Each structure stands twice: as structure tokens, then as C-alpha cells.
């Protein structure tokens, strides 16, 4: 038996096709073979977390049991009749939910890059699902907890390694029903198209930028010692690779979900056409940014406004933008470049809003036409690519890393 | 009933600067009249003025995206 990164090579797709066909036939004829779906989920999890990766498999099982117990416990507390619904119990539950992730993220920073033994591929994405479920249980929107369905949601194998991040209530409505035949045929059509677009993105474009071009520009930039135009070249090549690799992966995950009759939300919507940074975050890694919007940004704004912490609406928004994006930075990892990346986007959102307000006030004198729109797209693209250069950690290698040449 | 409608339209007018009494089906998000900030303000105003306790996670953008839908939601929650 061989071991696979999800969607990593043709054999993985062959296995996928074989495993999924019986499920598709069932769905076409109005039935979801749940037992079979669980069986193939287990098989694909084994392909990724078994064999030489068995230690991460153990970590996944431990993590899974821990979170099921935690959410069961909190649901029991919250869903009882006359639940006290105390704030500190809720905050305690959220802290316990993110604790394993925090340990996994902090360990390399304090132990010279050594990885924590409780980590596994996809831990940060599952954590989002858990925290979101706890928050909606707190709000009383999730009214009943079902450990098996919740388990299906957490371990849904097409999205386990890197999202897209689905929502419990949304996932459940799809999982518990079978789409009407005509709708399912449309899903198949769209799903297959996504998968083939994914092939082009990941195995042609990301291969071209990441595997062919990147080593060349990287070497040139390192040889130049310090600032050079090669860094700019690296910035664009890295940005293209990042997009096509991740968007390609996301297309596979969404496409396979569709074939399984689950409408996992889309992750990208032509992000390089964004007219400003806010627009960008509505198009780039959308399930992550919407998660941050709904579970961090809006809740912070709600809290600050309700308790009238800041006098003005503008200050509230600005403070929340920066906190929101900083948390996103910390989530990526405890290195100066990830945190700077978060801060950079927080400040960019503040500047963006300030400019939009100014522009609205002076509508009469500030031109707005096709040309200025093109300029806005160009500017946003470059700001974004620069932020990816920070994110890549290449500047770290270049200026603080061991000299390789 | 009419009271709810008037109040919602008044709140939306304060938030977006537009009068929706004739355009109850205009999509507030597509036209970028409402963003996350505005949404939270809307929820807080609904809480203050109509006593609706709507948590942020109740708020599914697709279900609250036009003035008509908001009015309908609020009326359902008031009962």
C-alpha cells in the first residue's frame, strides 16, 4: 500500500474515482449510502494518516475524541432546560477547543522548529469547525448535538487537509438529504468541471510557477545578496504559485464534495480582479476570511458597540480590522513574517476604508472611470503580491537565514 | 405590523442613507450598501428599538439581504 497527500498524484484520483462511483449511483437513484460513505472516508483518511504517517494518525484520533467530548460537554451544558449559559463557560470551552492548535503552533517557535507530537495535517482547519460549532451552540442556533453527525462534519475527507471550511448547519442540510436527480446531475456537471479546472491550475500552472520557475528566481535572488529586482520576480512567481496551487486544491475539494452531493462552499472568486483590499478578502480564501468575518470581526464589533467602548464607528471598525487580521496572522504560525502579514492586511483595510470615505465625501472632484478602476486593480494586485512576499518567509531566508552561497 | 416595517426602514435609512420604502427587494449586500459593520449596527438597533434578540450567528446573509426579508424575519421573531 502507498501513502498519499490528498489530491497529490494521479493514483489518488484513480482511487477516488473508483471509491466514489457506487456512492454516485446511489445518489442518482435517490439514496445516500451512509455506511459506504463512512467506509470510504476511513479508507482515504488511512491513505493520508497511515503508514509512515501513523503518528499523525494517532494524533488525529486523540484530537478527534477530545473535541467530540468537549463539544458534547458544552452542548449538554448549554442545551439543558434553563441552562445558565454563563459567559465564562463559553470562553472556557473555546479556549479548550483551540488549545491543541495553540500547542501545535507554538511548539516550533520555542523548540527550534521541532514539530509538536500532537499535530497532524489539517488540524487548523478542523479547529475552525469546532470553534464555530461551539459559538453557534452558545447562541442557541444549534439546538441539538449529534456526535455521529458532528463527527462526519469534522472528518469529511475531501476537505480535511486544507478546507474549504464548511459550516455545521449547512453541511448537515446536505448530508441528511439527497438532492433531486436533476439538481444532482447539475452538481456532477459542475463538480467535474471544477476537478478538471483544478488539474490545469495545480498540475500545469502551479507546476510551471512553483516547480519550474521558482527555483530559478530564488537562486538568482539569493545570489544577488540583498535587494535586487530578482526579489520582485520572486514575489510575482510566488504569488502565482500560491494562488494556482491553493485554488487548484480547493477546486478538487469542492468538486469531489459536489459529486458526493455536498455543496462545500467555494474558496476563490477571481481574487486578482479585486478593486480594493476589502474586495480582495471577499474573493481570496473566502471560507477562511468569512469565518474570521462572522466569528471574530462581527462579534468584536458587536461587543465594542454594545458596551460603547469606542466613541466612533470608524475607530471601532479600525480596531477590529487590526485585531481580526492579527489573529489571522498568528493562526498562520508564530513567526515574524506571518504576524507581519496579518498586521499588514489589518492596516491595509484601515487605509482602504479611510480612502473610500474620503472618496465618497469628495465624489464631485475625484474621477471615477474605467481607467481609475484599472489602476485600482493594478494597485491592489501589487499590494497583495507584496503581502505574499512577506508571507512567503523568503525575506527571512534572504536577510536572516544561513548563507547558503 | 406596520410599526415593524416603519422602524426597519428608518434604521436602514440611518445606516445607508437611502430610503427603501419603495424598493423593498433591493439587495443590500450586492449593492454594497450594507457591510459587516452596518450589519452589526442593524442588529443592535433591532435589539434596542424592537427588542429582538438576534445573535450574530442567526444572521445568514442570504436570508437577510433585502429590506423585505429583514422585515419578515423581524416579524417572525417578534411573535
UniProtKB/TrEMBL annotation, chain A:
Protein's pathway: Cell wall biogenesis; lipoteichoic acid biosynthesis
Annotated keywords: Acyltransferase, Cell membrane, Membrane, Transferase, Transmembrane, Transmembrane helix
Membrane topology reported for the UniProt record: Multi-pass membrane protein
Location(s), subcellular: Cell membrane
This protein's record includes keyword Ligase: no
InterPro entries for the chain: Ac/AlaTfrase_AlgI/DltB, DltB, MB_O-acyltransferase, MBOAT_fam
Keyword set includes Cell membrane: yes
Spans traversing the lipid bilayer: 12-29, 60-77, 89-110, 147-165, 185-209, 246-263, 335-353, 374-395
EC annotation from Swiss-Prot or TrEMBL: 2.3.1.-
Family: Belongs to the membrane-bound acyltransferase family.
NCBIfam families to which the protein is assigned, alphabetical: LTA_dltB
Function (record text): O-acyltransferase that catalyzes D-alanylation of both teichoic acid and lipoteichoic acid (LTA). D-alanylation of LTA plays an important role in modulating the properties of the cell wall in Gram-positive bacteria, influencing the net charge of the cell wall. Catalyzes D-alanylation from DltC carrier protein.
Name by which UniProt lists this protein: Teichoic acid D-alanyltransferase
Organism the protein comes from: Lentilactobacillus fungorum
Amino acid at each position: 500500500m502507498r501513502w498519499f497527500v490528498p489530491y497529490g498524484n494521479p493514483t489518488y484520483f484513480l482511487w477516488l474515482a473508483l471509491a466514489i462511483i457506487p456512492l454516485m449511483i446511489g445518489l442518482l437513484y435517490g439514496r445516500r449510502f451512509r455506511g459506504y460513505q463512512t467506509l470510504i472516508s476511513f479508507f482515504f483518511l488511512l491513505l493520508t494518516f497511515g503508514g509512515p504517517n501513523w503518528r499523525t494518525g494517532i494524533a488525529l484520533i486523540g484530537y478527534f475524541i477530545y473535541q467530540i467530548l468537549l463539544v458534547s460537554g458544552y452542548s449538554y451544558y448549554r442545551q439543558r432546560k434553563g441552562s445558565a449559559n454563563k459567559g465564562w463557560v463559553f470562553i472556557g470551552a473555546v479556549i479548550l477547543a483551540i488549545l491543541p492548535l495553540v500547542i501545535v503552533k507554538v511548539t516550533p517557535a520555542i523548540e527550534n522548529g521541532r514539530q509538536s507530537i500532537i499535530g497532524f495535517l489539517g488540524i487548523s482547519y478542523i479547529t475552525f469547525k469546532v470553534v464555530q460549532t461551539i459559538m453557534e451552540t452558545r447562541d442557541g442556533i444549534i439546538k441539538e448535538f449529534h456526535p455521529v453527525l458532528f463527527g462526519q462534519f469534522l472528518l469529511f475527507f475531501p476537505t480535511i487537509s486544507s478546507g474549504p471550511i464548511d459550516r455545521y448547519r449547512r453541511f448537515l442540510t446536505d448530508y441528511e438529504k439527497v438532492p433531486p436527480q436533476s439538481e444532482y446531475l447539475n452538481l456532477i456537471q459542475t463538480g467535474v468541471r471544477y476537478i478538471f479546472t483544478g488539474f490545469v491550475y495545480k498540475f500545469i500552472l502551479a507546476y510551471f510557477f512553483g516547480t519550474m520557475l521558482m527555483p530559478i528566481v530564488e537562486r538568482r535572488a539569493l545570489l544577488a545578496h540583498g535587494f535586487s529586482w530578482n526579489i520582485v520576480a520572486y514575489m510575482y512567481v510566488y504569488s502565482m504559485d500560491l494562488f494556482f496551487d491553493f485554488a487548484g486544491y480547493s477546486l478538487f475539494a469542492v468538486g469531489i464534495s459536489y459529486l458526493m452531493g455536498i455543496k462545500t462552499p467555494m474558496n476563490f472568486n477571481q481574487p486578482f480582479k479585486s478593486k480594493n483590499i476589502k474586495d480582495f478578502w471577499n474573493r481570496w480564501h473566502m471560507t477562511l476570511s468569512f469565518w474570521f468575518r462572522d466569528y471574530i470581526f462581527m462579534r468584536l464589533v458587536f461587543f465594542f458597540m454594545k458596551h460603547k467602548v469606542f466613541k466612533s464607528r470608524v475607530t471601532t471598525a479600525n480596531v477590529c480590522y487590526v485585531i481580526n487580521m492579527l489573529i489571522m496572522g498568528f493562526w498562520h504560525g508564530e513567526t515574524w513574517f506571518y504576524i507581519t502579514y496579518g498586521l499588514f492586511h489589518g492596516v491595509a483595510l484601515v487605509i482602504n476604508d479611510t480612502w473610500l470615505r474620503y472618496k465618497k465625501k469628495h465624489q464631485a472632484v475625484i474621477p471615477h472611470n474605467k481607467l481609475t478602476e484599472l489602476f485600482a486593480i493594478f494597485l491592489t494586485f501589487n499590494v497583495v503580491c507584496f503581502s505574499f512576499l512577506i508571507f512567503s518567509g523568503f525575506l527571512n531566508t534572504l536577510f536572516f537565514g544561513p548563507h547558503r552561497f | 405590523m406596520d410599526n415593524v416595517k416603519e422602524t426597519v426602514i428608518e434604521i436602514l435609512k440611518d445606516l445607508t442613507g437611502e430610503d427603501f420604502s419603495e424598493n423593498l427587494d433591493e439587495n443590500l449586500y450586492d449593492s454594497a450598501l450594507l457591510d459587516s459593520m452596518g450589519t452589526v449596527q442593524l442588529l443592535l438597533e433591532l435589539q434596542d428599538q424592537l427588542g429582538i434578540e438576534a445573535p450574530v450567528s442567526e444572521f445568514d446573509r442570504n436570508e437577510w439581504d433585502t429590506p423585505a426579508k429583514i422585515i419578515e424575519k423581524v416579524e417572525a421573531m417578534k411573535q
